[in-house]
Specification:
It is a single chain. The protein is mainly β and about 170 residues long. The chain has strands at about 5-10, 15, 25-30, 35-40, 45-50, 50-55, 60-80, 85-90, 95-100, 105-110, 120, 125-130, 135-140, 150-155. It has no helices and 14 strands. A seven-stranded antiparallel β-sheet has the order 4-5-6-7-8-9-10, with no helix packed on it. It is globular.
Length: about 170
């Protein structure tokens, strides 16, 4: 889809905006959106809420799934591997990251280190780079589905991580 995907609160909505035609398709959301991720193929989006994650089919357009999680989902990543990755809003303590298997709504927690909540998917789709405004950067392997820790650079690379357009370099 060559569209701009965005969320709003009050009213709680996901917008599929076409900048050429200026058309705006609106998908009502049950909960206040806290975070948003679009799957790399552009056909689905994940919206993080307080205690929930919504999966939105961007072709139909409609919410296709709502999955309960045990956090305020301040960061979300929707990968092409059948998983979404939910990160807590509060990142000043150790917190669990939820790997959500979309076909079963099964949550797998990872709480081994101090994480951020600004996830970026690498070009291969096998890794998440996670930035934090307070702690540093973390690399997670998602090639097998549930996230596993690769490295944590606590105290370094503090702030938002940016990827080059080809997703091959970190800034």
């Amino acid at each position: 889809l060559d569209k701009i995907i965005m969320v709003s609160a009050s009213p709680n909505e996901l917008h599929i905006y076409d900048p050429v035609s200026l058309a705006d398709q609106v998908v009502p959301l049950t909960y206040i959106p806290l975070s948003l991720s679009v799957r790399p193929d552009g056909l689905a989006a994940a919206v993080g809420h307080s205690g929930e994650v919504s999966i939105v089919n961007l072709q139909t357009p409609a919410v296709s799934q709502t999955i309960p999680v045990d956090m305020d989902t301040g960061g979300i990543a929707l990968a092409s591997n059948g998983y979404a990755y939910a990160f807590p809003s509060e990142t000043n303590s150790f917190a669990t990251i939820n790997s959500i298997q979309l076909s079963t709504s099964t949550l797998t927690g990872l709480s081994d280190t101090y994480y951020g909540n600004i996830p970026l998917l690498d070009a291969t789709g096998n890794y998440l780079y996670v930035g934090s405004l307070r702690a540093g950067a973390t690399t997670l392997n998602i090639s097998g589905g549930p996230a596993t820790l690769v490295s944590s650079l606590y105290g370094t690379l503090i702030g938002v991580i940016w990827l080059s357009e080809d997703r091959a370099r970190l800034f």
